[in-house]
Amino acid sequence: MFDFIGNGSAFNTERGNNSAFIKKNSSMILVDCGGTVFHRIKQLNLLQDIKNLYIIITHTHPDHIGSLGDLIFYCYYILKFKPTIIYPNKDIITDFFNIIGVGDEMYELVSDNKVNLTAPEFGDLNIEFIPASHVGVIPAYGFLIGMSDNLVYYSGDGNKLPEKNYK
């Protein structure tokens, strides 16, 4: 279901920051956008013909959102569309965008613990954020994503799996 742009950690930049994507025709779902990710997206030409970009954020460490502002600027100014940011804590993500100068007009924000949206070429997307044990200073999430007949759990940087059975 997902292809990975990077599977390194914050300090293993040779492998790129953790980030995954699903691309179908002119739509793409991206998970996290750390400091190395926008550069790799450009290198791999992943944004060619993209008109709908859905970015799911697991938490706000720099290796997960470090180049998110660059990607939003690129979509807005160069590609001429607003990406959709999906993150359950509206205050945290909007404060971050305000600090780095990303205006409200440059993106769409979907901020809820359970997200249901219809995405061109993906159909109905169901995303459920699940609090993850990572660090105490910022909230972190894994998530379930349901699309077509697939249900996938993406752990983000969680250090233990949730006990709930998601079959």
From TrEMBL:
InterPro entries in UniProt: RibonucZ/Hydroxyglut_hydro
Entry GO MF terms: hydrolase activity
Keywords: Hydrolase
One Pfam family, short name: Anti-Pycsar_Apyc1
Domain of life, source organism: Bacteria
Protein name: Metal-dependent hydrolases of the metallobeta-lactamase superfamily
